[in-house]
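Hi all, long-time lurker, first post. I run a small reading group and we've been trying to get comfortable going from sequence to structure in the token notation. Rather than ask abstract questions, I figured I'd post a concrete chain and ask someone more experienced to write out its structure so we can walk through it together at our next meeting. Sequence below, copied exactly:
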Amino acid sequence: MNTMLRGVPAVTLWSGESRTGEIVLQHSGASAFRPARVLGVGYADERGADRDAMGVLIQRRLQAPGWGTARLKLVHPARQYRFMAGELCQGCGGDPDRTAAGTLWLMPRPDAAPLGWPEGARVEHPPICLPCALRSRGACPEGRRRGWVSVRVGDSELSHVAGPVFSERDGRPVEVGQGVLSYDDPGLGWITATRWLRTLWDCTPVDLDAEARDAADTRRMATPTQAAR
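-- Answer (accepted) --
Happy to help. Here is the structure in token form:
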């Protein structure tokens, strides 16, 4: 399990976690009946941990949390994938808060919320535990500006990836922009993912302060009093 370093969420990218690995074109095998063709991009020294469970290439970075300065608006690709795929708390890397109403998510309110939001929302922030949610409300500038929404989510699906998209130019890979692709997009072989998105379903907005009070009351009731001892 990860822990917060200097009060920084475990999913955050640090300035010392630089990009590594040489991006190369990935080809299909040639045969007597079919020439090799370009399938997308990969690493020159690719290994198993370089792709997610669906075969999408993960942007490779050093694993050095706490090294340098926290880049609070960015996430470490491999950690963010692990937290999103495993539904781990974005703050501490442990289990998020779960009740009968669902898993807790804390997200900034969108500047223009679509009809029905947050039902069907695509989010790139992993879920969160209650203590980390209470700490995070006052720590994130974006959340303070836009306001926070806390939601219990009954169901969610890892549905999209985001990151730099490549193309072939003169026989070599060239970065051509940023993209957000669904898992059924035929262009998945050309992205080096930096973020994974979950689509949220069965959403119930909740009052985080009320949930914190309820949790404190539950802990007090579960703790034997001195008289009972």
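A couple of things your group might point at:
The longest strand covers residues 148-169.
The helical segments are 77-86, 130-136, 141-146, 208-222.
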